[in-house]
Amino acid sequence: MARAELDKQPTDVRHMFDAVAKRYDVTNDVLSLGQDRRWRREVIAAVGPSYGDRVLDLAAGTGTSSQPFADAGAHVVPCDFSLGMLRVGKRARPHLPFTAGDGTRLPFADDTFDAVTISFGLRNIVDPEAGLREMRRVTRPGGRLVVCEFSSPTFRPFRTVYMEYLMKALPAISRAVSSSPDAYVYLAESIRAWPDQQGLAAMIAAAGWQSPQWRNLSGGIVALHRATA
Question: Which of 91, 170, 196, 220 has the fewest beta carbons closer than 10 A?
Answer without folding.
Answer: 91
